[in-house]
Write a structure and sequence with these properties.
Elements lengths: L1 H33 L3 E6 L4 E5 L5 H25 L7 H29 L8 H9 L5 H21 L2 H21 L4
Antiparallel strand pairs: 1-2
């Protein structure tokens, strides 16, 4: 039973990452389409979406760069709001865990990159850096760090309150404990 659980955890993680990439790139693509761009490439393996044309104001450019993170985060928050810890099925709980945690983890870049940006050390190709290239004309990069931190904390509180992590760990441990009790019982 332990191997089956480990196999499920290991197999679901890459699938969850692929789902995150699809949501991330779709978030960018939605704004590109709203700006009148034509999508020329959508690559899951390279985690990239290309476009040509479109009308980008500063606001639309910032929205394009941020929506790659915001769209999966919105999906994550919706999943957390509707999560049911009493629902049966280990698969449901594992998928919920990944769908909620991966977007929250991606916000760490939006917390740290503004600090690097202030010191001129931010990686140029990152969405957060491209966002800051425009945003820094209007406000301090520190605002972006605080906004990311606020979203991380909000998501974490919701994640804990909904009992997602606790439900998954209880489920994974419950069977292991019952198996140990059954295996250690004495037959006289």
């Amino acid at each position: 039973m332990k191997r089956k659980k480990l196999l499920m955890v290991l197999c679901l993680f890459p699938a969850a990452v692929i789902l995150y990439i699809i949501l991330h790139e779709s978030g960018h693509a939605m704004v590109m389409l709203l700006a009148g761009s034509r999508i020329t490439e959508f690559s899951i393996m390279q985690a990239h979406v290309s476009y040509e044309g479109g009308c980008y104001t500063d606001y639309m450019a910032m929205w394009r760069d941020a929506n790659g993170t915001l769209f999966p985060l919105l999906v994550s928050f919706i999943c957390m709001l509707f999560y049911n810890s009493r629902k049966a099925g280990r698969l449901y709980h594992m998928i919920s865990l990944y769908i909620c945690l991966i977007p929250l983890g991606s916000l760490l870049a939006w917390f740290f990159i503004p600090v690097l940006y202030i010191h001129s050390k931010a990686p140029a190709a990152e969405d957060a850096t491209q966002f800051l290239d425009v945003f820094s004309w209007y406000g301090s990069p520190v605002i972006v760090s605080f906004a990311a931190l606020a979203l991380i904390l909000t998501g974490t509180v919701l994640f804990v309150r909904k009992g997602i992590f606790r439900t998954v760990t209880d489920d994974l441990c419950r069977n292991d404990i019952s198996e140990q009790v059954q295996n250690s019982s004495c037959t006289c």
